[in-house]
Fold:
Amino acid sequence: MSLVTSLIMRQMRAPIIILILGYSISILGMVLTPGLDDQGNLWHMNFFDAFYFVSYTATTIGFGEIPYPLSNAQRTWALFTIYLTVISWFYSLGKIISLVQDPTFREALKINQFTHQLARIPDSFILICGFGETGHALASALTERNIHTVVIENNTQIIQTLPLEDFKLVVPGIKGDASNPEDLIVAGLQHPKCAAVIAATASDETNLKIAVTSKLLNPEICVICRSELEEYESNMFSFGTDFVVNPFDTFANIFAMAMHSPSLHLLYDWLTGVPDTDLSNPVYIKEGHWIICGFGRFGEGLYQQLLKSNIQVTVIDPSEKKREKFLNRPENSGNDFIIGTGFDAHTLTVAGVGHAVGLISGTDNDSNNLSIIMTAREINPDLFIVARHNKKTNEKLFIATDANIIMQPSEIIARKIRSLLVSPLMIAFLNKARNQDPTWANITISRIMGALGESIPNIWTLHVNQEEAKALCMVLRLGRIMRVGNLLQDPRQREQQIEAIPLLLKRNQKLLLMPTDDIAIKSGDEFLFCGTPGANRSMRWTLNDIHSLNYIMTYEETHDSFIWRKITQFIKSKERRNRPRKNPHRIK
Amino acid sequence: MNREKVVFSFFMILALTLNYGFYAGEVDNPNHHNVYELFAVVIVNMIATVLKFGDRSQMGAMLLATSLVALVQLFSASIVWTYVVNIQGDPMTPDTMSTIISLSGGALIANFISVILLIIETSMMRH
Structure:
């Protein structure tokens, strides 16, 4: 028995017993009270008559005095019956209504509904702890790629508005404290379909607690943590958290990538973006004098990257302590540290905004950041501006400032985690791509644009095994050679190419970037592709349908007519099925 | 002493004793079986059943099941009585009476099991 029915039953005990008692007393009284029949003889109602009479009286239907007009004694009892049973009904109805409004009952009802929603998820889901800006961005990013997500959040209001959000898939949510193991279990931590837990709350301590709980209660699960402080980060890693994502480090790395190789940055942007949205334009970061306003975690991370490239930097921050610390380090000798806030023209002019090429407004206050950008733009309209955007609600303002790069921590985290979850091959690809020279990235970008057009490609993986590529495995077992190029042929028109590009081949733990068309496929290979959803479907067709595969692999044209070709294909397949032993190697 | 337990046990044992009272006597003799007694058995059994609602333990489930069986048997007996006497309008015959009594005999066994289970549960709590 579920908790909900059990609660209803337990609460309904008293009202039902009151009803039974009220009815039975009334019926018994009605049977015992003497009356007269139509001939004036003494007459008693039997139980059937009495039950009928009490039923229509108690429910205030009131058919009248059936079967004979009641005697005065019976009318007296009928009066009693009316008050007794009608009051019993009112009491019971009141109880039912108060039960429906009972907070415990409602909670049980919600948990019940949530459990049903979990059961309806077809394959696997990812549990997001905390539905703040990061959680929201994550749910949106993951559902865009058809990954089911489930949310646990402490704030009742957020959970109540969750069903109103416009996600591609239904995102079940439950109210609960993610740092409490029991709540996490209710949210599906130990559910067999739970593939990963993402700790995305604003507090590092809570995230740490979630990571510990998840690893202890379900060691096989993938745990990803958001973290902003280094000491927590190392702690999280110490007990096997799979990935720790720090928005500031992540952004600093992306910034460095954009600085060293704009095309590589563009490639990263495309492959981790939301599929089927417009492709972004490349960002060119100029070398020269840079100004950093706000020397917190964000500003410092970017400073280190600029320092590595030997770029001259002026830092503006109101903290004296930070200045002392900054000046004490020998590697900072070439750079200035000015005490100030940065949103007044004076400080900015002293820092040299007039001749600077770039400005980073990296304080943790959005109004300050906006003010810094406005003031700096007024003095030097050509500045390259990197803006730190803290609160989602200010999004429109930041877009209006026309800053060259807008860094939103929750977006950065969402993008990073999505690339972690989409495929491990994707991470391998991005890591390997980072070590390539810029021309390689340029060639790759033009290939993707040439083949796939103007929108962000979909990403998918292919593992050459029995489950994912039935037909292909069969052909490989027979010793025939199939090349990467064959996979890219259209199974409907083999002279044409499908809109897909192989990004990575993993074979025996070795990685090969952009595998060429002439590479022969081996069983056990893993591929990473990007392309259109249609190309993905066509490829699955080739991989699993032996006829499509044969069509692609046959190079000499045998029949011109489409119908005739289909007929011969059909006949041959029949023959093969009927005589498997005589011709085991024939697949034409 | 737990008052809830007292009420609970009272109704279960009363259901059994009343049921026996109705059941006792010659099986086909209408004079030995009183309609008021059947009414009382039905009402007390209904109350005993409702008292078992919402208990999530294994024993609670068994007790609820036996009570529901008793109720089904007693309702059938009452329906037979109502059908013959009120709908067909015939006087009570030994034939009908024996049907009603055998149905109530089934209910008696169910009620008996209920009480046994109750005793087992109580004695287990002692240890």
Remarks:
- Residues 3-126 of chain B form a domain with the Methane Monooxygenase Hydroxylase; Chain G, domain 1 fold (CATH 1.20.58).
- Chain B has a mean pLDDT of 90.
- The helical segments of chain B are 3-23, 35-51, 58-87, 94-126.
